[in-house]
Fold this sequence. Notes:
Layout: E1 6-12, E2 17-24, E3 29-33, E4 36-40, E5 45-47, H1 49-60, E6 64-69, E7 78-79, H2 81-88, E8 91-95, H3 98-108, E9 124-126, E10 131-134, E11 137-143, E12 152-156, E13 159-161, H4 183-194, E14 201-203, E15 218-220, H5 221-227, H6 237-248, H7 257-264
Parallel strand pairs: 3-6, 6-8, 8-9, 13-14
Antiparallel strand pairs: 1-2, 2-3, 4-5, 4-7, 10-11, 11-12, 12-13, 14-15
Helix pairs in contact: 4-6
Amino acid sequence: MSEPAAITPFHDAATGTFTYLVSDPASRRAAIIDPVLDFDAKAGRTSTRAADAVLAALRERGETLEWILETHAHADHLSAAAYLKARAGGRIGIGEGIRDVQRVFVPLFGLEGSCATDGSQFDRLFLDGETFDLGEIEVRVLALPGHTSDSIAYRIGDAVFVGDTLFMPDAGSARTDFPGGDAGLLYDSVQKLYALPEATRLYLCHDYPTGAQQPRHETTVGVQCRENIHLRHDTTREAYVEMRTARDRTLSMPALIIPALQVNICAGALPAPDANGIAYLRTPLNVLGRP
Length: 291
């Protein structure tokens, strides 16, 4: 029987994002889940501070990067997947629903001709229930549509990396008003998580602590079932959909949705430079958000 995976969280305070370095102690093979590329929106400048911190830990432990795993195409931070692959190798994986996301956002950003809509930028498109190996450890994919159509989780032993599907119990659940989002599907996806053993550890992609509270990255199925403010074990589908839909109407767009999506649907690859040597991001006017 293989040893349990070693899990190290890294918190990016600017975006409230958790990146995870997960490794098999026996083979020293590792995966990085939901890596962050730093982005200064005011200056339009990227940097690699967050990703370099994870790479430093990988190298200090003498591990080989086998996988760079995305739980979905994030709208709140840019992905460092392409940077990590260039620096340390590994294969980039995401849910097969990324093709649906690309079909929406490639034309929105005018990226036809530079960003394919078949998911070919990624090395692996995962299906629900599919398994793959991280060294000697098996990883199982759980499709969790609702927040986005490509949302998936990675189950490694008694740990599940759930992306944005759930937050800490006092923060509830993900929004469902992006293209491809669906509150009913998110309810169904959470029921899939709640069917796991109560002691199953859930590793979250985000936490937004207030005051002196420290960011938290881990909870359990049992705690979520009993305490999640949006969706407990006895919450009905109808009640959840009504609550989630009403709440989504009050939310503004994420601060980095425009730069993040056009980079993340291309597996973290930045736009190619124009003839003047400068790369540009595009901003669609009067499309996203509410008038």
